[in-house]
Amino acid sequence: MAVGGDFAGRRRGDTVAAVVRQWQAVHPGLDTGPMEIIGRINRCAALLQQAEDAPLRRAGLSRPEFDLLGALRRTGHELTPGELARETFSSGAAVTKRLKQLTERGLVERRGDTRDRRVVHLRLTDAGRELVDGILPAQLTYETAVLSGLDGPEQGELAALLGELLGQLEGRLGALRS
Question: What are the helix (H) ranges across 89-124?
């Protein structure tokens, strides 16, 4: 996925390219390179959120709810609400609200800590586990279709580059929080 050559030609038609051209006309000396990356990441995220993940929608779940269920499933053990918030990059208030809905639906159950009554442990119910395991293959098929415009090597390179960027951002933000 080199920046020059064919790839650069393919991306000229996206909305961020138009915005960048407009800024370059107004301020020709500015380096709009960062805008080209961040703008595209933000635009992709917005479009993916608008699509609302068809398999999740059919199951009556939002992406953030599925992320909570998925965190409980993939870790394989009980988590506290705070641990779930960290696992899903969500605020405590958002996790609390989603957990209330998921508990009411019978997908998550709460267990009080025997040593500290303020602590709650969360785990998937059998219904929650079955729902996650049933949706995951369809969700991955959906995500594969979303990415089908990129061939395998391009997807791998994009994943690696985004992983690098994410690792750097997480490191910087983690250092700022310390």
Answer: 92-104
Residues whose CB falls within 8 Å of the CB of residue 11, separated by 6 or more in sequence, listed in order:
17
Q: What tokens does 167 get?
A: 């690792």
Each residue of 41-51: pLDDT tens digit? 999 988 887 77
**Residue 74: CB atoms within 10 Å:** 10
Query: What's the pTM?
Result: 0.76
**Residues forming a β-bridge with 79:** 122
Average pLDDT over residues 76-83: 92
CA distance 30 to 25: 10
- Domain 56-138 sits in CATH at 1.10.10.10
What is the pLDDT, as a whole number, of residue 72? 96
Tracing tokens 């006309």 back to the chain, one arrives at 25
CB atoms within 10 A of CB 126: 10
Which tens digits make up the pLDDT trace of 51-70?
767 888 889 998 899 999 99
User: Which segment of 47-51, 116-120, 126-130 scores lowest on mean pLDDT?
Assistant: 47-51
CB-CB contact of 88 with 64 (8 Å): yes
Give the span between the Cα atoms of 147 and 172, in whole angstroms: 29
Instruction: Indicate the domain borders of the chain.
Output: 16-50, 56-138
> Rounded to whole angstroms, how far apart are CA atoms 109 and 117?
16
